[in-house]
Design brief:
globular, Metallo-beta-lactamase, Chain A, 7 helices, 16 strands, seven-stranded mixed sheet, alpha/beta
């Protein structure tokens, strides 16, 4: 399995013959150059969405239509998009698991918000979630945008992820110290990969604190468009 950071909270996940784009943010992404967009989405088979803030959702519908691939996400929003936008969707909900053809994706809670702007004001787009992805004998927890939450205790015990791809930039999500706390208290990760940081000045710029607080855990600071092989 290969994980490729597209900057901020966006990921390209390659496993078997599947290429998943998690919260793909291209338009206006300050750390992903326009000359990298084509490579970022090449061969994509699915789009996976955690919530509807602009930095996660702005490119989802255009990509689903231009690439003719399904969007996977929270049931209420997927049902609405399938009807209103005419796209293929895979809708499920927290506690559910879907098989994407050799890739198992379980939806888990997150603690954040999930809104978007319209001409009629702010609207809610389903609810914020994270995912447990199982493939190639690995279980990877993609936290999405979240704070520390007590639900992480049962999630760690039940799913037993060995890799955590965790929001860690602070201000909108856990910061590095909070992420380290959650990782130590609720999980038994072998590898932790921070995200949702470095993309704006208001966010944390380094994972040094995270690495220092997680002795014995491999902490990988991702680089944009660089492969991480699990």
């Amino acid at each position: 399995m290969k994980l490729i950071w597209l900057g901020h909270g966006s990921w390209r996940i390659e496993t078997g013959d599947k290429v998943l784009l998690l919260d793909p943010w291209l338009s206006g992404n300050p750390v992903l150059g326009e000359d990298q967009h084509a490579a970022a989405i090449a061969g994509a088979t699915h789009i996976v969405l955690t919530h509807t803030h602009f930095d996660h959702v702005v490119d989802v519908l255009p990509l689903a239509k231009s690439l003719s691939i399904p969007v996977v996400g929270q049931y209420d929003l997927m049902g609405y998009w399938a009807e209103a936008e005419g796209i293929e969707t895979v809708g499920f909900n927290k506690g559910g698991t879907v098989d994407l053809g050799g890739v198992s994706l379980s939806m888990v809670p997150a603690s954040h918000s999930s809104t978007f702007s319209t001409a009629d004001g702010l609207r809610t787009g389903g609810s914020e979630v994270g995912y447990m992805l199982r493939a190639e004998g690995r279980t990877v927890y993609f936290s999405g945008d979240t704070d520390i939450m007590a639900d992480m205790e049962w999630m760690g015990d039940y799913y037993k992820p060995d890799v955590g791809v965790l929001s860690a930039g602070g201000h909108f999500t856990m910061d590095m110290k909070g992420t380290a706390y959650a990782a130590k208290r609720y999980f038994n990760f072998k590898t932790v990969i921070p995200c949702h940081y470095k993309s704006f000045p208001i966010l944390e710029q380094s994972a040094e604190t995270l690495a220092a607080d997680l002795p014995g855990v491999e902490v990988i600071e991702p680089e944009v468009m660089a492969e991480i092989t699990l």
